[in-house]
User: Fold this.
Amino acid sequence: MTATKVNGMTLSEQSVLGAHAPRTQRTGHSLPFNDELHLEAHRWLVDEAYLLDAQDYDEWLARIADDVHYLMPVRVTTALGAGYSTSPGMAHLDENKYSLSRRVARFATEHAWTEDPPSRLRHYVTNVRTFRTDKADEIVAESAVLLFRSRGDVGEAATVSAGREDLLRRTGTGWELARRTIMLDESVIRMQNLAIFL
Amino acid sequence: MTDQSVVLQDVRQGMIPAHIYNDKEIFDLEKERLFSRSWLFVAHESEVPETGDYVVRRVLEDSFIISRDEMGEIRALFNMCLHRGMQVCRAEMGNASHFRCPYHGWSYRNDGRIVGLPFHQEAFGGEEGFRKKGQTLLPAPSLGIYNGLIFISMDPDAQPLEDFLGDFKFYLDYYTKQSTDGIELRGPQRWRIKANWKIGAENFAGDMYHTPQTHTSVVEIGLFREPKAEKRKDGTTYWAGNGGGTTYKLPEGSLEDRLRYVGYPDDMIERMKEQWSQQQLDVIGKDGFMISAASLFPNMSFVHNWPRVEEDSDEVLPFISIRQWQPISENETEVLSWFAVDKNASEEYKALSYKAYLMCFGSGGMFEQDDVENWVSLTNTAAGSMARRLLLNGRMGLLENGGNVVEPLTPEQYSGPGSTRVGYSEYNQRELLLRWADHLERPARAAAQLHVGVDPVSAAPAACATETAPHTAAAVPAMMSQEA
Assistant:
C-alpha cells in the first residue's frame, strides 16, 4: 500500500507539507536478498529499530537527512473503488527535520511527562524489500513494522501496525533516511498519543 | 440503579467525588440522561462540500450518515437499513447518490428516501404489505447548524440549537467565522485514550492553571514564544450560554497590532474587521484578550494558539482545532480532532497553520501528549474504593464562605458577554459539571418507536397512514411528491 498513488501522485507529493521532499522513486523489481544494497538497507532498518526501542533519539536524528519528509497519513475507510484510503489534507505527522528535531528536543527536557517514566518499546521490523532508483546513491526500502508500547505496570499495552516506504540515501558516513511514508493499518489509533516514532 | 443525588449535591458545591471519572453506573446515567438529549457536534458543512458527499459519525453506539443530498441540503441519517438493520454505509467518507444495503439490496437516496426494494410486489405484496412511499432512513431526531457546524440531538423536542448555544455564539465566531465564508475543516485524526470524556472537556473549558506545569516542555524547546508559561494567569476565563473558555492577555497596541502579535496576516485582519461585531473586535483591540481553549457543553472543544513553527524565525502562526470527546465507556474516549482554517486565508497561511496544529495538538501534538498522560492516569486512579471517599476540590476561585477570590470584570473592563474573570479559577469546570448534574438528575422520557412500512398493532392495514415522526416528515419535504 505504501507505493499507492492517487491520481498519479505519491502520498508524499500530495501531502500539505511535503513540497521540499526528495522525489526519487523505485525502479524495477525488488533486489535479491543477498544483494549488497538490500543487506545494507536491512541492516540500517534493524539498527534503527534498536535506536527507537532505546529512545536514543539524538543518535536517530543524526541518521535523518536534512531534507527529510516524514509522513504518517490519517487512514480512512472508504468504499472499494473510491481511489483513496487516506484523509485528504490531513496527517498524523507531516514533518521536516526541524519539526522532528523539536520532538526529539522535547523528550530531552525534564518535563515531557508522557515519557516519564519512559515507555517500554519494541519495534518489530519485517517483510523488508529493497529497490534501486535511478540514482546510484539512493534506494527505496519497504518494511512492515509492529510497535509494542507498554507504559506503567498493569495498564494495557498498545500496539501499532504499519507499512513503511523509505528513501535511503548514501552519504560519506553511511545511509540516511531521506523520506518515509508510514501507512498505519488502523483508522482509529489505539494508543494515547504518538510520542513515538515508527 | 444507585441513587446518585448525594454525588450530584457534592458536585454542585464544587466538591467532586473522584469516582465520577471512572464509574459504570454514572456512565450509564450519562448515556440515558445526557447524551440522549443534548446537542452534539457531528461534522462541519465543509466536510461534505459537494452534492453526494458524506461522512459517517457516531453518537455513542449510533451511526449516522451526514450527507449533502441532491438539493444541497445537509442530512443526518441513522445508518441502519429499515428491513433487517444492516449498516447501509460502511465507509467513513465518500460520495454517493445512493446507499445500497449489502444484505438484501434495499437502496436509499442520499436524502434517505427508499428507492429500491427488491421483489416489493412478490415478497411484500407491494404497497399493501409494505408502504414504501415516503419511507426514509431514520433522520436524526433533531438537526441544527451554526456557522456550518452540524449538531444533532437525540431529542426530537430539543430546544433550537441557537438558543442552546446562546451567548457562546459570540465566542464561536472567533474560531469559525473569521470571514464571511467561515472555516474549512480537515481530518479528523481519531484515536482512543483510556480516559473519561469529561476530563478533556473540563480541561479545555477553563484549566489555565495546568499550562505552566503540564506544558513546560514546549516552552523549553522554543515552540511557544511566551518566555514563561505562567503568562496564562494574566488571561481570563469566560462562561457564556452553554460554553466557556480561556484567553491570553495581549501586549499593549491597536487591534491590528494585537492580531499581528498572534501571527495573523493583514489580509485576514481586514476580513475579521468586516466580519466581527464591534464588541467582538473590542475584546481584542480594547480589552486586550485573545481567545485560546474553550468547551461547549457537553463534549466539544476548541483550541486557538500561536506557536513558532519555523527554524530561525521568531514569527508565530495561529492555528484552530475543533474536537469532540466521543465517549466509549466510563474509562475510554475516542478523540476526534480536526484542523480548522479560514476558507479565505492564503494557501501559504493554511499550510503553516496546519503545521502549527500538527506540532502542538492532535494525535501527535506536543502539547497534547502530556495532557493525555495525565488524564489516563487520573481515570485509572478514579476506579477504586478510595476514590469513592475522596471529594476532589474543584472550588478554585471560591472562598469557603462562597465569596469570590476575584470578582468578574465589569462591562467597562470587558466587552464580551457572559461572566469573565482574570486569573486562575475553576468556574468554567463547575459550569460544565452543573449542567452535567442537571441532566443526570432529570429522568429521560422514553423515545417514541417507529413502525416502518406497516403498523399492524395500532391501525387497520387498509386505513393507516405509515406512522411517521414529525421530524421524519419535515426532513423530506420537497421531493416526496415527485416520488409519489
DSSP finds four helices and seven strands in chain A. The helical segments of chain A are 11-14, 36-53, 57-61, 97-108. Chain A touches chain B through 40 residues (CB under 8 Å).
